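[Q] Does anyone have a clean structure-token version of this?
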Amino acid sequence: MNKKNTQWEFSQLAKAVATVALVLASGHSLMAHAAETPVQGGTLNIALGSDTPIIDPSITGQSVTALIDRNVVDSLVGQAEDNRFTPWLAASWEVNDNHTDYVFHLRKDVTFSDGTPLNAEAVKYNLDRILDPKTTSSYSKSLLGPIKTITTPDAYTIAIHYDAPFAPLLQGLSLPYLGIQSPTYLKKTQNTTNTVVGSGPFILKSFVKGSGSQLTRRADYHWGPGYATHTGPAYLEAINFKYLPESSVRLGALTSGQVQAIDAIPPVNAKSVKSNAQLEVKTKENPGVVRVLYLNNSKGPLADVKVRQALLSATDAASAVKVAYFGTLKAADNVLGPQTQYYDPAVAKLGGFNLDKANTLLDEAGWKAKNAAGIRTKDGQPLTLEFVYDPSTLESSDVTLFQAVQFQVKKAGIDLKLVPVDSGGFTDRTNHNQYDVVSSFYVRAEPDILRTVLHSSYIPPKGSNYSQVSALDDKLTQAVGAPDAQRKQLYADIQRQTIEQAYVVPLAVPAYQLGISKKLHGVNWATNAKPNFYDAWLSH
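[A] Here you go.
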């Protein structure tokens, strides 16, 4: 073989290989760029494990309502993932040094989806409606605090005044529960439980309890929050939220491609979802009040602090959480979660599982005898506690958690009777003080959330103080307007007293787990640990 020809052939081959490599590299770069470039259109289908009976965010504290309505109603201010506040409906605002006066300057180009303008009068109407005693808005009202006056100096300026300092207002205003709705719609609608009209990037087309919600994109939207990654209309053409309470059905819908996202990934399947090359799991640990048992200290056995403390000591939260959630959630050691401002880690040592201590406390409380079933008795009455809950607002793993606790406390001779009821039954039972124990969690980064669940102003039917506590009122009231260092100390005291007096039994630190198809991009998080879909898009 001619050496010169061989060298020429090798040279040509090297050039060809280099060209192919360049083409492949360019193609890969183009594909990567395409994958990162948002695409307009498409319908995002999301399967939810829990339902809500009410879609109006002003009259409920349901987290599912907040998830859906974040796409329909806008807020005066936004709060980014790093907790900074950003403009939204308010282009700017001023707050005086002692947090008694707030002045918001609104954008002048915002309209509701019914075509009416969003101005200062519209904002005032919404806030007045929430504060009106006729409106069943205990949670939204708690976010506003003790407002003295609301005025509108001009068409696009709104001023809020307090007699006493109220520091948490901006954080509350950033939440969907204080989202602004169309006054025109509200005035002509007697029952707003299944409709809402806002100024958000999507319009609520339909909401059916027990089925789901359909949202369509608003084409003229261009006033998104300051933390968003784009401006103008949403990328998605529509969002469908589907209520699929069965975890296996929900997971099957994701793996088969019928939906592109699910919440409440079944804990037993979490590892398989993470190992699926077509899927990924996004997790955000909730701030706020963790999943707790609220112990009704207004009547019955739980009026005795020793019985409450015994129930706390008889509960092995770490084991129960492991059984129920397969390592996907952490056990709670406080009434607040670690992601909450002023969370005090020192409180953890005040509680903890101690069966011997539980037995001693119950003996001291006079519950010494036991019946044939091993349940303690006093004056011939068994130590039975009714734990009332609404299964439609829970995942199956939550019920497993309750059953694990029920099994644990029976070892101390406590009969924790699980009583499932529907949403109407739950409201009726709690409003009429016909329960011993209930459970819930509340998501908010601001520790003022404790006022909502532990201040006597919010004892049912006025709110969610299911423990029926009044001893913390003074500290909770002081904390909302105190200087930062004093607020921190007050909330530390409140956390410590809540556990020492066993007003609640901490169980689990909730986390929002979103299982998604890798075709879904651009999902970010609100500070209430809920996914935002304004920046989201689907690759084709």
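[Q] Thanks! Anything notable?
[A] The radius of gyration is 27 Å.
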